[in-house]
UniProtKB/TrEMBL annotation:
Topology within the bilayer: Multi-pass membrane protein
Source organism of this protein record: Ruthia magnifica subsp. Calyptogena magnifica
GO CC term (a single one): ATP-binding cassette (ABC) transporter complex
Domain of life: Bacteria
Residue ranges of coiled coil: none
Keywords: Cell membrane, Ion transport, Membrane, Transmembrane, Transmembrane helix, Transport, Zinc, Zinc transport
Protein name stated in the entry: High-affinity zinc uptake system membrane protein ZnuB
InterPro entries, per database record: ABC_BtuC-like, ABC_TroCD
C-alpha cells in the first residue's frame, strides 16, 4: 500500500512541474487547441504501443513527434488555418487509435484508464520515465527560455533579430508531445489538456511576471493533483476526473478572488 502511494505522489510531483511550466507557454501562445489535438493523438500512440509490443511511452513520443512535424509543415504552406489543420489531424489520429484498439481488443485491457488515467497503477519504470522527461524539458526551458519568451511576446521582433520561428515552433510542439507522453497515465487521453491550461489560467490571476506565473502554475498544479489524488483514494473515484474537478474548483475560486481584488 505504501509503495504504490509513494509512486503516485512522486509521479504527481513530476507531472505537476512539467504541465505547470509548459502550460504557461500554451496559454501565452494561445495553443490550447494544439494541446487538445496532440492529446487526441496520444490514443493512437498508446494503441500502436500495445499492438507492436513496444513501450507505450516510446510510441507516444514517436506519434507526437510525427504529429508536430506534419502540423508545422502544413502551417508553412498556409493553405489551411491552424485550427483546421489541427482539427483534421487530431480526429484522424483519434479514429485510427480507436480502430487499432478494436483490432487488438483484449478483455483484460482497462480502456477506462486509457481515457481518464490511473495514477495508482504507476510502476518504478514509469517514475523513471517521468523524471527523465522532466530533466530534459527543464534543461530545454532553461536554455531556450529567453528565445521562447521573446517569440511568444513579440514574434515580429524575434524574427527581426534572426530567430528561426519554425525551429522554435517545432521545438515547443515536441516539448508538448513529451509532456503528453508522461501525462496519459495520470489524467488519461481525454483530460490531458486540462492539466496544461487550467493551472496557468489560475496563476495568471495572481502573477506579475512570466517566471512568477510559471512558479505559481506549478504550485497550483501540485495542489490540484494532491487534492484529486487524495479524494480519489478516499472515495474510490477515478483519479483523472478527480484531479480535473480539483483544478476546476481552484479556477472558479481564483475568479472570485480576482473580482474582489479589482
Amino acid at each position: 500500500m505504501e509503495n504504490f502511494i509513494f509512486r503516485a505522489v512522486l509521479a504527481a510531483i513530476g507531472i505537476s512541474i512539467i504541465a505547470g511550466s509548459l502550460g504557461c507557454f500554451v496559454i501565452w501562445k494561445r495553443m490550447s487547441y494544439f494541446s487538445e489535438s496532440i492529446s487526441h493523438s496520444a490514443l493512437l500512440g498508446v494503441s500502436l504501443g500495445l499492438a507492436s509490443g513496444l513501450s507505450v511511452h516510446f510510441s507516444l513520443v514517436i506519434v507526437g513527434v510525427i504529429f508536430a512535424i506534419l502540423v508545422v509543415i502544413l502551417q508553412r504552406r498556409q493553405f489551411l488555418s491552424n485550427d483546421a489543420i489541427l482539427g483534421i489531424f487530431s480526429h484522424i489520429a483519434l479514429s485510427l487509435g480507436i480502430i487499432v484498439l478494436s483490432f487488438i481488443g483484449n478483455t483484460n485491457m482497462d480502456y477506462f484508464s486509457l481515457l481518464f488515467g490511473d495514477i495508482l497503477s504507476i510502476t518504478n519504470a514509469d517514475i523513471i520515465w517521468v523524471y527523465v522527461i522532466l530533466i530534459v524539458l527543464g534543461l530545454l526551458l532553461i536554455i531556450f527560455w529567453q528565445r521562447l519568451l521573446l517569440l511568444t511576446l513579440n514574434e515580429e521582433l524575434a524574427v527581426a533579430q534572426g530567430l528561426n520561428r519554425d525551429f522554435y515552433q517545432l521545438l515547443f510542439m515536441l516539448m508538448i508531445a513529451l509532456a503528453v507522453s508522461v501525462s496519459v497515465q495520470i489524467v488519461g487521453v481525454l483530460l490531458i489538456t486540462s492539466l496544461l491550461i487550467i493551472p496557468p489560467a489560475v496563476a495568471r490571476v495572481f502573477a506579475n511576471t512570466p517566471s512568477g506565473m510559471v512558479f505559481q502554475s506549478v504550485i497550483v498544479s501540485m495542489v490540484a493533483v494532491a487534492l484529486g489524488l487524495g479524494t480519489s483514494m478516499a472515495y474510490d473515484l477515478a483519479t483523472g476526473p478527480a484531479i480535473v474537478i480539483a483544478l476546476g474548483g481552484l479556477f472558479i475560486l481564483s475568479q472570485f478572488m480576482y473580482k474582489r481584488s479589482t
